[in-house]
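TL;DR need structure tokens for one chain.
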Amino acid sequence: MNLILLSNTGRCGSTLLTQLFEKAIPGTVSISEPECLLPFVAGNTVSVTKMKDRRKLLRACIEVLCITAINRKLKDGVKNINYVVIKPKVIKCINTFSKASSYHIPFCTYRPMRLV
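>> reply
TL;DR here they are.
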């Protein structure tokens, strides 16, 4: 299974892209804006003080999200899951996740700013 972390700047089509991954690529499941990952990027809201333990906790949260999403798809009759796409709420998540995981594929979307 490959993990794709879909970073975004908001209002850039990332929700549509997340849905397209799941619909267009067989064996793909997507998770959009999971709340359980926000404490890891919101400063010191996670009470684990050691960075090593914090990374382990983050990795465990990602694994639980993936297992839950995969089981949901398997119940729907999908035979093989090759990709899990996670689209977090904030762009800062990608850097945080990169430190906790070595088995992900980063994928970034953005919206160019208008010239005023």
